[in-house]
Amino acid sequence: MVFLGTPEVACEPLRALYEAGFEIPLVITRPDKRRGRGKSLSPSPVKALAIELGLPVSSQVDDVLTVGAELGVVVAYGRIIKPHILDQLAMINLHFSLLPRWRGAAPVERAILAGDHETGVCVMEVDEGLDTGGIYRQETVVIDANETVDELRGRLSNIGAALMVQALRDGLGAPKAQVGEITYAEKLKPEELQIDWSKSALEIHRLVRLGGAWTTHRGKRFKLHTTQLISPEDHQELAPGEVHHDQVGTGEGELRMLVVQPEGKARQDATSWRNGARLSPGELLGT
After folding, report:
1. What is the rounded CA–CA span in Å between residue 149 and residue 110?
2. Is 92 helix (H, G, I), strand (E, B) or coil?
């Protein structure tokens, strides 16, 4: 088989297939790019793992047709597979949702934002549509109320890797058509990470769990990395965005800030930030 994948979430499935003994004559991944603050090019996480495992790597997807593979395995590759390739090589995909809910690029993020209580993984056939293929295997996963997107994605990657290996060992069989309401998981836009303090504490807490949620304080960008929902008996009746000790008001309920990051500074616990900022009574975030 050939393996197609790019980000960290695709590494565990690649490692699991390799360690299960499947022959992998080629790994396809996105080209090297500039990552972080450095100016030099760096490989994708999947390319780095392939090199570690001693597997050949290419960034040209048409190369999948040159190694005599019988199957393509796709995990978060990041590009639509062209029809002329699918006509010549059958492919399966590991998708991180319970299809047909959350077809598309950001299924884990959208599941958290929507307040879903469960998600899952699907081993599915790749066709020309966007995550429209039939399903070979599916497993449901409960979402913890405080789980971050990285934590959930890591769990799904591990569960999906085991599910895919078992499905290939047992034989895929015939795929089943997707059943249920169709929803789409568009890639998250940067502006969606700005906190709207008129929203409820629960909605804002979900946004913070995605990583990168931000507001402003005294005209500068201010990130919230970790928050905690506050029980009704501990409420301070704060206005939306109003800070009192480590609590902040919202449109409905209040949040406790645990880890924050003022612009130009490192992450720090909210108590240390509050002591250094010397907040005035009634001071607001989002200003």
Report:
1. 10
2. strand
Fill in the amino acid letter for 243. V
The residue with tokens 């709207």 is 196
Residue 226's φ and ψ, nearest 5 degrees, are -140, 130
Element (H, E) at 163: helix 149-170
Q: Model pTM greater than 0.85?
A: yes
pLDDT of amino acid 35:
66
- Averaged confidence pLDDT in the chain: 95
Report how far apart the first and last C-alpha atoms of the chain are (Å, whole number). Answer: 54
Q: How far apart are CA 204 and CA 7, in angstroms?
A: 26
Torsion of CA 112, 114, 120, 123, to 10 degrees: -110
pLDDT in tens, 185-221: 999 999 999 999 999 999 999 999 999 999 999 999 9
Q: Which residue has the tokens 């998600």?
A: 119
Tens of pLDDT along 213-231? 999 999 999 999 999 999 8
**Residue 83 vs residues 29, 123, 128, 148, 194: alpha-carbon distances, Å:** 18, 20, 6, 36, 38
